[in-house]
Amino acid sequence: MPELPEVLHFKHYVESTSLNQSIGKAEILSDKVISNTTAEDFSKFLKGQTFKSASNYGKYLFLHSTGDRDLVMHFGMTGQPVYFKNEHKQQDYARAIFHFENGFKLAFDCAQMLGKLELIEDKKAFIQNKELGPDISSDEFDEETFLELMDSRRGMIKSSLMDQNLMAGIGNECSDEILFQARMHPKKKVNELNEDELRNLYDKIDMVVKTNLDCLDHDKELPDSFILKERSEGADCPDCVGTIAKITVGGRSGYFCPQCQHK
DNA sequence: AATATTGTTCAGCA
DNA sequence: GTGCTGAACAATAT
Predict the structure, then answer these.
(1) Where residue A222 falls among pLDDT bands split at 50, 70, 90?
(2) CA–C1' span, A228 to B14, in Å?
(3) Nucleic acid strand B within 7 Å of A36 CB
């Protein structure tokens, strides 16, 4: 479930389980998830390495190794890291497994096979190459930056929020929640938004990301005021008597309350 | 059985 | 260059 809050949660998960342990073996179960290099080179490099720290940028998770290359994980639509010891706890969809010398293992799990593992030499260059916008959880993404980014936009707000080249981290579900919290229609044109509306939107991005992350990290349910709790057609709006409707924006399915969220 | 799905990337067209 | 659509990628769940 990897949008930025999930990726940050995964970062915390990996930090608390998989750092500072020597990798005895890097097992590749599906070659398809390895990009940039061969499965053989990938395994060979990681054997004997140790993950020293983790960081993220947008939906990408970086595991910094003791060697001259770092591991990048991208989870696609259904990926997740799973730390375990006993084989019977192993997930069905592990595509790669890092075996640590203490007997524990970290699996790169991804049912849909849309996830990617990559070895890179330079994180900055990697980000530049992907042409990612500022990470929405970083200091770089301040309110003025957000206003500037939206300044030249003319399309629909939901599409802009999800555009990784504009700002990195918001996916389909988060964008629905942000727009619901701001009580804004997904198809609202960005150039029709005034400064107050944009500033409010910025605050909601921050709130949704922080709330989401807090719930994931502490295994809590989302607040009842969130549309993500009942994100399906015909569900009750958390705030009014309306029902949730489905809409297609930029080829993705969005859910919103037509009564609360106006154009 | 048909359809939908949390992401990315590319092609085509206005 | 921007914006929008559709497709491909692949597997699973309903």
Answers:
(1) very high
(2) 35
(3) no
